[in-house]
């Protein structure tokens, strides 16, 4: 839990800073935050689908307002929630599938993310979670509902001025490529990275054609340092798996190039790739003492 909290906290600070820089470039206000991705940004969509991958039980949510689990894979709020608050919007972004919310709530922020998903359909199949293409179908459904709720003109303005957050990719490697033989028999890891980048390109292009203009794409963290990877790295004295981290760096480089290409190809697209999440997160793992207070809370938990 402490680990996830740290992760969220740092992702949040870094993404927030970059996103604020992105938006500072524009004079327009952000009327809504719209979220796609995996457990790093899922606000509770998995609560209502039939998967074992859920977090709607304690101690998840112990620091959330009211102290109850919401389906966020975190002790408290997750990065999009802090970002929303920083833009003067709601302090937390509701999950689209949560029946206790309606279009009036979603008008200023909505989350379509699903823990366990990835760019690849085969990844979401592993734990029967929402595939990325379906997150986009839900977004289309949201567009129709918002048009009916605020009218066409206002809705289109929201779609183009909203900030879109995307955070996924880790599960494609850890839950899928390195766990099951299918993709490994079809692709080398480099080829699989390219396959995923192609899927990311298609998704972002589709989102653009649906009206999205301000997009933040978050790369993958040092995947070889995640708790499960270190726990099972018995031969390596539970250190980070360097191979996985190398793949993460390589994949992030490809995503970053994709973002520059898309910005050249798609007029009016403002897009940002947050690669620094990797570096900062890695530094914290490598020299926790340099981060003072965080060091003590980290060691207390582990
Ligand atoms: C993923 O699945 C959807 C729905 O079956 C399909 O439309 C889409 O083409 C698939 N994507 C890929 C890359 O196979």
Automatic annotation (TrEMBL):
CDD domains: SGNH_plant_lipase_like. GO terms for molecular function: hydrolase activity, acting on ester bonds. InterPro entries: GDSL (IPR001087), GDSL_lipolytic_enzyme (IPR050592), SGNH_hydro_sf (IPR036514), SGNH_plant_lipase-like (IPR035669). Residues 1-28 form the signal peptide. Keywords: Signal. The keyword NAD does not apply. It holds the Pfam family Lipase_GDSL. Belongs to the 'GDSL' lipolytic enzyme family. This is GDSL esterase/lipase. It comes from Dovyalis caffra.
